[in-house]
C-alpha cells in the first residue's frame, strides 16, 4: 500500500503536489480547529432573568436571575434598526465584514499604544466584547489573545445578528442591571423598540463607563456624553440631520424604576411550571433551551392582555379596600376569552405584597366551597335527561332526603316554583330534588370531565349537599365550566400560555380559534336554556338613564355563597368573555356582609363594563333542536284533560318528559260532599264528579302548616270493605321528624322531647303514632306530636287511616 501511494505521489507534477499539500494542510488546520473547539467549548451564557410576557410580547413580570442580576433577555425584535445602527457605528463599524477580529483596527491600536500620545485602546470588536462578557479576563496581552480566539469561535457558532443579540443581553449598565432590555425597562419604563433616538444612543453610551454614567445618578455627565455622540453620529451621516437636531433637544429623563410586577400569581405559576419542565426534559432538549436563552428567547409568553390585566388588578385592589371595614380582605378575578379559551386577566389576590392578609396565596387555584354556583350546570344536565324544562314546577317545601334536610338561603319556602324561578332566585330545596332525580354519581362524573380535580377525588364520599357547596372547587374550575356553557356546552381547558412560532411570535389567529374539539358536557339547547334564564336577572348596576343602559353589556350570571358566609362568588359570561369573581378571606373567616349578590356581583359588573362596554349587544341565538310546546301553567307538564291554564315553554323533542299533567284528580263524592268513593264502592246514583288538587304529601303538609288555603278531598267511604286500588305503598305517610338513622342527644335533667311529624296524602284525615311498637296517640296529619323516649334504639312508626304504614329508626342518648 505504501508503495502504491509513493508511486501515485511521484506520478503527479510539482504543481499538483503543492496543491495537494495545501489542501492537506488546510484539512489539518480545520481538524485542529474542530479539536480545539471541542476541547475548549464556549463558556456558558449567564442565566437570564425569568420573564413572563403578555400576549403581545411586552414584559408583565420579571424576576432577578439566579446570580441576582436584572438580565432580561432581548429578543431579535428588540434590536431595532436605530439601535443596530447606533451601536455598530459607535462600537464596531466593520462588524458585518470582519470574522470577529479587525486586523486594521488592531494595527492602528498597536501603533497608538506604542508610538502615540493618545489614550490607550484595545481595538475590541463587538464579538471580542461578547467574549470578554462571557469570560472576563484581566486586560493583558494574553487575555487579549484569548479574547481574539474566543471571538473567532463565536463567529463560527453564531450569526452576526445573534452575536449582536448576545452583546445586548450581557452589556453592563451599572449596579446589577445588565442588557439593553433591562436598562430600557428599568431606566425608561419602555422596551427597547419603543425608545426614541436620543434614548437609544444614551443606552449605547452607558456601557463605556457604567459606574460614572449610571442613568438617574449621573444624568448631567450622561447628557453631555449623549449630545457629543449624537453630533458625531450626525457628522458621520448615520442618522439624518433633522433627527439629530430633534434628539439634541430632548431632555434626559432617565431614572431607576421598579421592575415590571404585573400578574404576580400567574407569573410565579408559569415560571415554576417552566423550571419543572426544564428539569424533567431530556439533555438534548435542555441544550436547545439553553441556546434559546442565549438568543434572548427566555421569556414565558402568557395569554394575558396587558391593559385588561392592569385594569382588573386596579379594580380588584380598590374594591377590596372599600370592603375592609366589613371584614372582607381578599378577592380573586379570572377573565377568559370565550373564542380562544385564553386567560386574559388573572388576579390571584387583591394585593400580592399584603403579607398580613396572605396576599401571596393564589385565589384562582385555592379550593373553596362553591356555594350555589354549580346549580346552572345541574339544571342543564337535567334538561338533557328530560327531567325538567324551564317552566317545570318543582317542590320548594321542607323535605328530608334521608338524613339530609336542606334549607333555602333566606330560611323560607315557596311551596312550588318553576325551574327558571328556582334558578333565578338560587333556591336550594328544588336543586336538591333535581339532583336526587339525576343522581349524585352522574353529576360528579360530569364535573370530573370538566376538570374538577377535587370533586373527582371526593366523588365516592359526596352526597346531595354537593349542589349546595358540599364539595371543593376552585375559581379556575368554575370559570372553565361557565365558559363551556358560553360555548354551547362544550368544555375545553383554559389556556395560560400563548401558542408561538419558531420566532417566538404569536401563532396566527386561525391556530387559536376554538374548533370542534373538547368534551361535550351538555347539549347546545340545554346550554342555551340555562343561559337564557341567567340573563334575565335584574342587574344591580342598571342606571336610571335609559340611553346609558343600551351600552351596557348583556350578561348571563350566577352568584353563590358558601356555608357560614366564608366565600362569595359571582360568575358571568356573554358571547365574548367569561369572568369569575371570588371574595372572602384566605384564612377562612366568615363575614356577615359576605354574599355573592351583595359583594361579588358589583365587582363582576365593573369588570364587564370595562371589557364589553358598547360591544353592540351581540347575544346567543336559539340553536337547532329546540322547540316550543303548550304546557300546564300549574305543573309545567304536558297538559292533561283538566289543565285549562296553558302557557308556552321550551322543550327538547325526543328528550323532554311527555307525561300528562295530573295536578288535579277527578274524585267521586257524595251529593253532600262528605264522602268520597272508589271504583269498588261507587254507588249507582246520588254522587257527583269533583276535581281536587293532587298535591304531593310534602306540599300538602307545607300548605297545612303555613295555613295556606287548599282543598282537601273528603274521607273515603267507611262502608267500603276493600282496599282501594290506588292505595299504593308510595302513598304511605312520610315521616319528616325524626330524621331516619339520626342520633339525638337529649338532656336528662331537662324536659326535652322528641318531635314526631309526617306528610300524608290529601285524603288522610288521621294518623297513628307508635314508639317501639307501642301506641302513642292519634293525631291530624299536620299535627306535631311530642314524646319523651328512653335512651337507646328507638323505632318510630306512623300509620294513616287507610292502613298504610312507615317506619324509621333513630338512636337516643340522655346526658
UniProtKB/TrEMBL annotation:
InterPro entries: Beta-lactam/transpept-like, Glyco_trans_51, Glycosyltr_51/Transpeptidase, Lysozyme-like_dom_sf, PBP_1c, PBP_C, PBP_transglycosylase, PCN-bd_Tpept
Catalysed reaction, written as an equation: [GlcNAc-(1->4)-Mur2Ac(oyl-L-Ala-gamma-D-Glu-L-Lys-D-Ala-D-Ala)](n)-di-trans,octa-cis-undecaprenyl diphosphate + beta-D-GlcNAc-(1->4)-Mur2Ac(oyl-L-Ala-gamma-D-Glu-L-Lys-D-Ala-D-Ala)-di-trans,octa-cis-undecaprenyl diphosphate = [GlcNAc-(1->4)-Mur2Ac(oyl-L-Ala-gamma-D-Glu-L-Lys-D-Ala-D-Ala)](n+1)-di-trans,octa-cis-undecaprenyl diphosphate + di-trans,octa-cis-undecaprenyl diphosphate + H(+)
Pathway: Cell wall biogenesis; peptidoglycan biosynthesis
Enzyme class: transferase
Domain of life: Bacteria
Record domain Glycosyl transferase family: where: 59-232
EC number in record: 2.4.99.28
Every Penicillin-binding protein transpeptidase domain range: 332-563
Keyword Iron carried by entry: no
Stored SUPFAM superfamilies: beta-lactamase/transpeptidase-like, Lysozyme-like
Domain annotation Penicillin-binding C-terminal: ranges: 727-810
Assigned keywords, A-Z: Carboxypeptidase, Glycosyltransferase, Hydrolase, Multifunctional enzyme, Protease, Transferase
PANTHER family associated with the record: BINDING PROTEIN TRANSPEPTIDASE, PUTATIVE-RELATED, PENICILLIN-BINDING PROTEIN 1C
NCBIfam families to which the protein is assigned, alphabetical: PBP_1c
Family from the record: In the N-terminal section; belongs to the glycosyltransferase 51 family.
Protein name in the entry: peptidoglycan glycosyltransferase
Native species: Hymenobacter koreensis
